[in-house]
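Entry for the shared binder. Reason: the reviewer on the internal report wants the predicted structure included alongside the sequence.
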Amino acid sequence: MKSKFWSTVFGIMALTVSLSAEAKPFLDDEVSLFLNTKNNKNQSLPVIITFQTTESFNELPHHPFNHAEVQRKMMTENQFKIDMLINQKNKKNIFNLWIAKSALTNVDRQELGELSNQSEISMITFAHKKIVMAPTKMRKPQVVQSLTYGLKNIKIPELRAKYPELTGRGMIVGVLDTGVTPTHPDLKGKILAYKNFSPNSDQNPIDDFGHGTHVTGTMVGGATSGLAIGVAPEAKVVVGKIFDVKGESTKEEILKAMQWIADPDGNPNTNDFPVVVNNSWGDDEPYRSRDPKEDEFCTVIDSWIKLGMVPVFTAGNNGPRDETINVPGACPNALTVGAVDQFDRNPRFSSSGPTSWKTIKTIKPDVVAPGVDVKSANQFGRYENMSGTSMAAPHVSGAMALIIQAKPELTVEEAIKSLIMGVQDFGRAGKDNTFGEGRIDLLKTIELIKKQ
């Protein structure tokens, strides 16, 4: 098997060289400026080098059962490309970003010039591009009820009455955000793994911005206050902190976190990865002139799916105009979530589709969920109401955990299809650019799964 795999790798590489001799990598503005500036001879630039997509192994079903085998093959093939294509004196400083079919490194002008002429490289981008967390509207907590309206609207009370075992037990979910407050009464004992990728160097679990704890509460929070806030309260969480106290990060650190969360302990043979990853953030970089294959985040999403991980992303808060969904929510294979209020109305802030890339136009969002005045945990151990598609997405992430708990043999595509089969359609009949397929209804989805 090993010799057959490597012969296939060499065959694919040779074919790529012969067929794409004229192609040159896409360079973003920062990289192009560095390459064309003559007075930076002794300087270097941190870059992300992304390779052409040429997977040499037979694709397995997109299921968690195949995670370890797929991951090992991705890691090996990407390292092979690094060794073949990047001719640097000190290769110890090259980071194998296999999740994005990329490499992270620093290059000088001469090295960049050589790389920019290689047809086997699809793009070279600035690694330290700043990405900022979108602001979220906050309000004081409202009158305490037994469950948040969000849980009620997606039919959690009816679901728990009929299927009391569906609480998320045995499931691992992931969140990449501003961190988490692990001592919150509704989150104690639920943080399975944590790593800080933000400019804040503290590796102890912390949320110095407040956004991540709220999101995590909606996914897995308990009911110690008498108010149930979480969709999957018995699930465990893997948390990557990607934003600092100012809500800022870089593309490099986010991509590293996206790779880490696919294998938190660095051992592909252990099942410590999440079945779903919540991403309540976005990047405002324009994408109309690019192919999704020329975007690192879209590549990561495709890798997550192959690893059996559901990629949940927010639509964004730039509505109500059309074509306001940012990357990564704009990536064709992301499960993109818009917001509705308590009465299933579209709030004006929720971003709308379609998403228009150079090569593809897609109706987005895919689904909607409660995202206005959602009550959940805050970083101070108390509770807070927040609004945004950031609050809608974790309802969907928690729902995906329960769907997979109900039927573990589902592939990523089958789990997403099951979610969509149960939605309540609003707006124009069928999928539209405001409500997507509709607002999720977890009871209906689970009942449909049980009948299959």
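Summary line for the report: Residues 67-85 form the longest helix (19 residues).
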